[in-house]
Amino acid sequence: MTPVISLQQITKVYGAGETEVQALRGIDLTVNRGDYLAIMGASGSGKSTLMNIIGALDIASSGHYELDGINIDSLDESALSIVRNRKIGFIFQSFNLIPRTTALANVELPLLYRGVGRRERTTRATAALGAVGLADRTHHEPNELSGGQQQRVAVARALVAEPSLLLADEPTGNLDSRSTSDVLDLMDQMHAQGRTIVMITHEDSVAARADRIITLIDGLISSDHRTTR
Amino acid sequence: MNIYETLRIGLRGIGANRLRSGLTVLGILIGVAAVIILVAVGNGTTQSVTSNLESLGTNTLTVRHGTFGQPGAETRTQFKDLTVADAKALMDADVAPDVKSASPVVTSQSTCSYEGTTHATSITGTWPSYFEASNSKVSTGNYFINDDVISARRNIVIGQTVVDELFGVVDPVGKQIYCDGTPFTVVGVLESKGSSGFSDADDTAIAPLTTVQNHLTGYRSLDSVLVQSSSSEVMDSAQSEVYSILDDRHSITDTTARDYQVLNQATLLSAVEETTSLLTILLGSVAAISLLVGGIGITNIMLVTVTERTREIGIRKAIGASKGAILGQFLVEATVLSVIGGAAGVLLALIVTRFSVMGITPIVMPASVAAAFGVSVAIGLFFGSYPANRAASLRPIEALRHE
Fold it and tell me: Which chain A residue's Cα is nearest to B397?
């Protein structure tokens, strides 16, 4: 079976000459379908850079990256936007919903950019909002929702396009403890349904929800172990 | 992603900041309305001046007596009068086939009175052919006839302004007025020609040539001869016929030193039309500049919008918006703003041009409406494309990091 993520000797260098910074120094990582992976590390360890590369928001300086069997190394900007749209669902620390736009319209957005017709979009977006428990909030705008609700809308938006990979960057970083457990429960639920999840976090308690934890130090993987859940 | 969806996203962006969108629209609105209104005013001016000139007759030549400062004229020893015989000679069908009529003209500034009311006006002494040549029609009463000229009858036809000043609401036909002490019988009233701003074409009176000469001016040289050509096409040949006959009669060998001058109404008309169309172009260019300023306003607002919404652009890109989708969204916003502004501007201009401005009725040119509206749409596309392109070219990670 093709792994969802296959990274080989990935490096990322920022700047040049004296100001050159090596953010990643050669990452080898394979994530299989159905895995729930947590990436940990102190700030500056390179975890955000790795997340950008996995999310096809950025291109590695060297190395080889395959996402769901697609070679990402050589793609141009427009091809990358298609990959992001079809293969990846993003969940951000700061929710990143479009302001002044209803929850339903936010969730519809990935389908809109994919070219799905209006009626099907509404049906699928409504279903996705129902799945995260916000069926009664479809016509609320982000500023009318609590942080936990906004993040659940973001989860619905990440899921609605049925991506191969759910990519979460500190998804609970801006949430109180109750909302945190709500969102984490939701992600457990998605995992149970067989989705592949990669989550970046610096909290041990959050990482403990995953079934595999890798830790980055100075742009290299320093530990990679499975949790006993 | 079809056009309809792009349009919807763009419209939502406009609705999100109504005040700013409104002000941008206002810029375009003023530009478009200014172009249409000013061109219409310029056009109206041209038409009003032209029609005033045309009311004086378009196929006439005026032969004026005098030298009018021509170089060489001062050294002339012979200086002949313009005479009735000259006018008669111009009507020789063999030598001047293109001349339909030639009317000798003398004018007198006289004060006329009727039952104690006085009014100063200009009395033209001439032949009946003058009425047709100068496009002067009688609305009530009659013209005077050739017999009146032969017998030097004191009959007079007066303009509407003279009627208003002397008679008010009384019917003037058949009444007697005194001009510089001479009694005249009013036989007709001229149809109103209206004023052309600087002169009142209705403040006039026309009487038989002989009568005016006998009682008012005396037998000096004619002031002018009004020559009517048989059609406006043969104006130029009529003019050269006039030159050849009068040069001969006045023994003129040096054509730069004539003792008379020929004014061609058609030449005058085209000169005036040239001037007024220049005016229209000038007004139009001033307005076009304001339209350009409106367009720059769109660029400005869209640049601010793009900067303000960098993060939103990053989010859209992260969830898979292509470069084209972002480009389309911002182009639609800019174009919709300018289309709304353009349409409102056309509407405003059509309302405003229904009123006269300073006595001039604006005449809307359909081409200026189409051009102003078309340009406003093009401005949206052109001035919106730079900010839209900037938005579309943002790198998603940098856009997402933007606070």
Answer: A57
Same domain, B98 and B229: yes
User: Which residues of chain B make contact with A93, given a CB cutoff of 8 A?
Assistant: none
Instruction: Give B352-363 pLDDT, tens digit per residue.
Output: 988 876 667 888
Delimit the domains of chain A by residue range: 5-226
**A160–chain B nearest CA distance, Å:** 11
CATH of A5-226, one of 1.10.3720.10, 3.40.50.800, 3.50.50.60, 3.40.50.300: 3.40.50.300
How many beta-carbon pairs under 8 angstroms link A with B? 62
Residue B198: CB partners within 8 Å, gap ≥ 6? none
**Residue B90 and residue B14 in one domain:** no
Show residues of chain B in contact with A86, CB under 8 Å: 320
Q: Which residue has the tokens 């002018």?
A: B224
Q: Where in the sequence is the domain holding B145, given as residue range(s)?
A: 81-249
Secondary element (H or E) of residue A120: helix A118-131
With beta carbons under 8 A apart, name residues in chain B contacting A163: none
Q: Which of A10-24, A118-132, B65-79, B303-317 has the highest mean pLDDT?
A: A118-132
pLDDT digits (tens, 9 = 90+) for B244-291: 898 888 888 877 778 888 888 777 778 888 888 888 888 888 888 888
Q: Which of B311, B317, B397 lies nearest to residue A81, judging by beta carbons? A: B317
The minimum CA-CA distance between B342 and chain A, rounded to whole Å, is 27
pLDDT tens, residue by residue, B46-103:
888 877 777 666 688 888 887 665 555 455 556 778 888 888 888 888 888 888 889 9
In a domain, B162, yes or no: yes
Same domain, B94 and B235: yes
Separation in Å, CA of B299 to nearest CA in chain A? 23
Residues 6+ apart with CB under 8 A from B332: B6, B7, B9, B10, B11
Question: What is the β-pairing status of strands A36-41 and A62-67?
Answer: unpaired
pLDDT of residue B78: 60
Helices vs strands, H then E, count in chain A: 7, 10
Residue B350 amino acid letter: L
